[in-house]
Here is the input.
Amino acid sequence: MAEVACVGALVRDERHRVYVHHRSADRRLLPGTWDIVGGHVEAGETPREALARELTEETGWHLRRVEAVVADWSWELDGVPRHEIDYLVEVDGDLSAPVLEQGKHDAYAWVGPGGLELLMAGRTDGDRRLRDVVAKAARTRLTERLRLEPIGPSHVDDLVRLHARSGVATRYAGTWTPERARETAERIAAGWEADGVHEWIAYDRFDDSLVGRGGAFLADVDGRRTHGIGWALHPDRRGDGYATEIGAAALRFVFDDRGADEAVAFTERHNTRSRAVMENLGMSYVEEIRLPGVVEGRTEVRDDAPFAFYALSADTWRERPVNTVADRRRRES
Here is the structure.
């Protein structure tokens, strides 16, 4: 792989909006466009050293911690190829008062999911990749132990690995081929773009190992549109609260980011493990419904399997949200 030539820093505020700044009109490269913090790796620098230097030069902030690699990609400008890595970072400094690098940047903004097209302003080449990098960073969530990335085509191999395990395959009508995983990843990515909500893939924050998938989605219930939540864990990661952690992140996304009044969840009636998670999250059993699924004691999918349907209102959740592993364990004790 080519040597890293450029680095980018994706800084977020408390609302998960990403910091961007406007390149001055007299810049030689990409004048008058919006950009993230970053620049070239100088001779003798490591990418992390370049990241820290660019952060301070362009904003006055200081690198505290690198949380994750958001993008590892190559691009070309004026015939010169560049290999870039963009990092999700935490910084020290006043996020309300960046110090713009004089002569290079003349404005700044915080971009959330609803403002992503700002990144296309002035982009005469129509290249959407930086816009998509910012979108991924804005949609990524960090919990105590997990990094939750919005599912897209880059996650196909991990989806195949996850659904190759018998415990997952049983509930999803068999193992997944790469083609099925790719179709699912593309459908979920399209859902993120169209609706601003869908599933994440979950990784361990500390060793990057695959934990599972889950998140929120739009569902039709009794003729109305509402938010559903769900999860699927790698069998080796069950029994230690990861499903509750994913579910709690999904509820925060639904209620805090989306401003929804309600969230629902459903699982096969005999799936006591998932039903316990729903109850740990504060959700209440509503009724039994019939959906395509697996009937207890059988392996084939039926059109009318019995499912347990749960719901939770925003008001109830705010009275006792599940935020941490410690909360979960305290409630289970």
About this structure: The chain has two domains: 6-139, 141-332.
